[in-house]
Amino acid sequence: MRLTRFSDIGLRVLIYLARSGERPAPVTVAEIASQFDIPVNHLVKVVGQLARCGWIQATRGRNGGLRLHVAPASLKIGAVLRQLEGEAELADCSGQACRLSPDCILRGALADGLRAFYAAMDRYTLADITAGSTGEKIVRMQRDFMKQLA
Fold it and tell me: What SUPFAM superfamilies does the record tag this protein with (predicted)?
């Protein structure tokens, strides 16, 4: 299984916002785009989806920006990935004429693997993955970005 770029960006946005709580001003799309070298137009689509899920608050306008709208400890990574990736089968057997279909064990094995993946991701929260050195690095990135603006 490979995560889509959409999900990768979504996770990065959430991670970045999780460690921006002490900042007086919200994080901007331009800031995240420059920090992770993400095209703004693609980032806007991801941010829109995260806002529709209720995980972030996106405010438009001159003083607008992004803020995390949930407690990091309450947001399970499995839930994020299910929403962003969907729970579609890893191999789409239904649209194909396959001579193995009546007796195929692979489809069930792949479904088991996908369930195991999401179960493993459910053991982690946004707080878990932004703790320690990862969180410290994000705070340094934000500090350095703010210095560039000053």
Answer: Winged helix' DNA-binding domain (SSF46785)
Asked whether residue 130 is assigned to any structural domain, the reply reads: yes
Torsion of Cα atoms, 125 then 128 then 129 then 131, to 10°: 150
Per the structure, the count of domains in the chain is 1
Q: Judge residue 50's burial from the number of C-beta atoms within 10 Å of its C-beta, 0-12 exposed, 13-18 middle, 19 or more buried.
A: buried
Per DSSP, 57 falls in state: E
Q: Specify the CATH number for the domain of residue 70.
A: 1.10.10.10
CA angle 121/54/58 to nearest 5° reads 120
Q: Which domain holds residue 34?
A: 5-88+125-149
Rounded to whole angstroms, the Cα distance separating 90 from 24 reads 43
Residue of 148 and 34 predicted with greater confidence? 34
pLDDT digits (tens, 9 = 90+) for 36-48: 999 999 999 999 9
Average pLDDT over residues 102-109: 81
Average pLDDT of the residues in 131-145: 90
